[in-house]
Specification:
By secondary structure, the chain is mainly beta. It has one helix and seven strands; from the N terminus they run E-E-E-E-E-H-E-E. The two termini are 24 Å apart.
């Protein structure tokens, strides 16, 4: 994890596949707490690209804080329903299903 003026950035291993990573950014804007995060776990070679996309200009130059922890099933700080999409069947019933990579 790293804290900057743009918020906090988190990279955590996936619970089921530790070689994949969830990436998230938590920040505040106009008094509102906001979240950006990957919908599914990413391979290690995509982590820096995602962090740049979330607004961290030089991920390799910041001082990262490392915590020993087990993996997570979704990005740190993800709101309920993150990574899910709403589908509606022929009868008009809606339900949430996992978004596919």
């Amino acid at each position: 994890m790293v804290y900057t003026d743009g918020g906090s950035y988190w990279v955590v291993p996936d619970e089921e596949c530790p070689e994949l990573f969830h990436i998230s950014r938590l920040y505040a804007k106009a008094g509102e707490d906001l979240f950006d995060g990957t919908r599914w776990a990413e391979p290690a070679e995509r982590v820096e690209i995602r962090l740049i996309g979330f607004g961290l200009p030089n991920p390799h130059q910041v001082q990262w804080r490392v915590r020993d922890r087990t993996g997570l099933p979704q990005p740190f700080g993800a709101p309920p329903g993150h990574g899910m999409i709403r589908v509606i069947d022929r009868r008009g019933r809606s339900r949430l299903v996992p978004d596919a990579p």
